[in-house]
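Worked example 3 (structure in, sequence out).
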């Protein structure tokens, strides 16, 4: 029986000690275990790095100064030894069949470069009623192009590069746009592969930054297509 492909899971982490154990436990509970889990501690001032270092086994903690999530993901890609790369934000978690479902899609369609799955958002249970009322109504299960829902061949990064640290919240959107322009083949599975935690910190941050980053990313994509008419035009991101 063939061994499953080696998957490196990169977990950017910045002051998420309250949530990191649930994220890491979900990776260790996968039906198909990752080859390695790389926690990139982005200069945390809480106990996040110590928590990650306490796991041992396939979990490795790499510390660097605070540089943002794009730089953390890029650092993880550089250190990864797997054939495939996946990402999980330290405040989210995966259902137990998340990795196996996406690997099955690659087995069914070997020409794919990356596979996304469905996302289900949930309100972090420690929030007070008043804090929950500040949040917009959560969508149901939906498809989405988030890093935590993506499994991608490591070779893709050699073709299109890493995440752009210029964007505060739009780094994944920009990366996917560049990938589609280069004809990277993405597939999709119809099961939930990411449970995304909603809490006041990440919601306020996205509200403040998303519209600005989105407009800049669209302008950057238009400039690339003007410079190279051979790039694929895509409205998906």
């Amino acid at each position: 029986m063939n061994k499953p492909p080696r998957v490196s899971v990169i977990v950017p982490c910045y002051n998420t000690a309250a949530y990191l154990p649930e994220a890491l436990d979900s990776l260790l509970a996968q039906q198909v275990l990752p080859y390695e889990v790389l926690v990139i501690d982005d200069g945390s001032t809480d106990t996040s790095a110590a928590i990650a270092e306490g796991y041992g086994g396939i979990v490795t903690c790499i510390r660097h100064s605070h540089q943002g999530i794009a730089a953390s993901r890029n650092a993880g890609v550089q250190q990864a030894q797997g054939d495939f790369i996946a990402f999980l934000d330290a405040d989210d978690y995966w259902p137990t069949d998340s990795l196996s479902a996406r690997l099955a899609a690659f087995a069914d369609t070997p020409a794919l470069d990356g596979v996304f799955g469905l996302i289900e958002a949930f309100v972090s249970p420690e929030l007070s009623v008043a804090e929950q009322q500040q949040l917009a109504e959560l969508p149901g299960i939906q498809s989405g192009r988030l890093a935590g829902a993506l499994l991608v061949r490591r070779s893709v990064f050699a073709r299109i590069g890493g995440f752009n640290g210029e964007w505060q919240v739009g780094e994944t959107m920009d990366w996917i746009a560049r990938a589609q322009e280069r004809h990277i083949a993405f597939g999709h599975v119809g099961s939930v592969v990411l449970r995304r935690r909603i809490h006041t910190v990440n919601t306020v941050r996205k509200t403040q930054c998303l519209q600005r980053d989105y407009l800049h990313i669209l302008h950057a994509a238009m400039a690339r297509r003007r410079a190279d008419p051979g790039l694929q035009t895509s409205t998906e991101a």
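Notes: The helical segments are 20-28, 48-53, 69-79, 98-108, 129-134, 155-160, 171-181, 200-227. The longest helix spans residues 200-227.
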